[in-house]
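In this section we walk through a basic example: taking a raw amino acid sequence and producing a predicted 3D structure, encoded as discrete structure tokens. The instruction is simple. Fold the sequence below.
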Amino acid sequence: MTDTPAPRLKVLAAMSGGVDSAVAAARAAEAGHDVTGVHLALSANPQSFRTGARGCCTIEDSRDARRAADVIGIPFYVWDLAERFREDVVEDFIAEYRAGRTPNPCLRCNEKIKFAALLDKALALGFDAVCTGHYASVVRTPDGGRELHRSADLSKDQSYVLGVLDERQLAHAMFPLGDTRATKAEIRAEAERRGLAVARKPDSHDICFIADGDTQGFLARHLGSAEGDIVDEAGQKVGTHQGAHGFTVGQRRGLKIGHPAPDGKPRYVLDISPVDNRVTVGPVEALDVTALTAIHPRWCGAPPAGPGDYTAQLRAHGGETPVTAELVDGALRVRFAEPVRGVAPGQAVVLYDGPRVVGSATIATTTRAATAAPA
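The resulting token sequence is shown next.
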């Protein structure tokens, strides 16, 4: 008995201009799929985006993507999604900071752009799947459903920023790099063998729509400057700032507090209040979080039934921590087995059951060990 060959799919490969998406598109074409490359123009003025390879939205990047598509031998287009990107990612980013929260724009881009706007347009044009260079895996279940799993190489795993994808989107997602255990050097060597000029191009970093990498400067330009107080846990003023949006929970550096704490230890940002433009600081122990409530849950399959034991990841490059979680009145309640630090409203909590991504939600409130009250 011979294995049934995989169906030949009509695939739209999102090509950022980097090495990962180029190799992913090449692998999809090599597997026999009918592949078309597309670069997403996400800025109305791409010259204002960073140059080199620190971002993924420059004219240089679109040219790199086109050259890669030519080498692979696939059709290539540039799609203008700048207005949708501005509304769903950039304005959301600014609004979240205005509200005192800490968003993840890459996660929002995957949800709203690559696997909503792009996928919907691709399906309308008759494509079967969207291919990207993310390191994650889509696994077919015995009943024909789809699950999102961690990458085979955990050091490169990007399932956290894909935890917003639902089962319908996963059914049309393709991640050719997800099953590889190759090092990044080996991925680059593969690109070199394929004749892809992006083989030596550095990886992208930071936030693609902040041209100079200065997040605080970007926020100040959009939200303005307004002097406010930095206070300790007792409400005593210990310094001033030029805008609460310039801080994140857990931040230690750049506080510019005029005098040290009584115990001489460093102080960290504990809370940000945009209503009165106040930033509260305190000892690192006060950052210990024992539980959280998260809203707008999205499930990579069926939602969990009742309370359950999982692991949770709280940032893109963070580790896992054991938790119990359950849905209560549409919100996700998560309790940590051991206290964790640096948890900020606006971040995503992503639940895992082994390598499987259960789903994600946006952190609304936290419960601190020191106060046993929501923060």
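Looking at the output, two observations stand out. Confidence is low (pLDDT under 50) at residues 48-55. The radius of gyration is 22 Å. In the next section we compare this with other chains.
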